[in-house]
Amino acid sequence: MSAQARDRVLTVPNALSLLRLAGVPLFLWLLLGPQADGWAVVVLAVGGFTDWLDGKLARLLDQHSRLGALLDPAVDRLYILAALVALGIREVVPWWAVAALVARDVVLAVCVLVLRRRGYGPFVVTYLGKAATFLLLYAFPLLLLGQGTGALAAVALPFGLAFAVWGTVLYVYSGLLYLAQFGLALRSVPHVAVGSRRDS
User: Fold this and answer.
1) Residue 4 phi/psi, 5° resolution?
2) Range of the domain at 39
3) Is the Cβ–Cβ distance between 73 and 197 less than 8 Å?
4) Same domain for 82 and 99?
């Protein structure tokens, strides 16, 4: 792909990523304002579908771009952060879990800044990080549904807790793997890219 193609901004996948980004404050308001958990789950589901769709369209239309590579995982993290803060405030998720997940992203963000100052690229994508993000994004709506009453809540809550536990463990573990990449990169020759884009 040419440098001009990678620098494109006005693409269909990027438009979908911006739509997902616009849903983050709406999602947070629904959770903390009216506590309309059903609508919050709908917003999260639409975000998940457009996340899949923008990747599919990027491949079909050959519309990969640097902005898309940065925006897509960033929006995923914003959804996770918004859900964590809201569920922590509502005492659905313990604050120690919120702190562990947020600390993981803060530490990795600092590592990326250090790498860029030394002439490296972002971390190599790992599917473990992708799997952790997938589990967490499915855990949150299940936990929300589990706060209700009835048969649906009784089924959703244990599944939500299972997804949350496994997602948290994998999210932290994948962070340790990225830290290992960081250590190896600092010991190697400068100006060699660590990877093409950051994990999810």
Assistant:
1) -65, -40
2) 1-91
3) yes
4) no
Residue 34 CB partners (closer than 8 Å, separation 6+): none
The rounded distance, in Å, linking the Cα atoms of 169 and 192 is: 31
* Percent residues over pLDDT 70 in the chain: 89
41's tokens: 């789950």
Residues 6 or more apart whose CB falls under 8 angstroms from that of 163 comprise 135, 136, 138, 139, 142
- CA 124 to CA 109: how far, in whole Å? 14
| DSSP state for residue 189 in the 8-state scheme | -
Q: What region does 62 belong to: left with phi over 0, alpha with psi -120 to 50, or beta?
A: left
Q: Which of 60, 91, 122 is the last residue of a domain?
A: 91
- Let me know whether 182 and 122 are in one domain: yes
pTM across the whole model: 0.72
pLDDT mean over 5-30: 83
The residue whose two tokens read 């290992």 is 180
Question: For 141-160, how does the pLDDT look when each residue is reduced to its tens digit (9 = 90+)?
Answer: 888 888 878 888 899 999 99
**Residue that is last in its domain, among 29, 61, 91:** 91
Alpha helices in the chain (DSSP H): 3-6, 12-32, 37-60, 66-89, 95-117, 127-145, 151-187
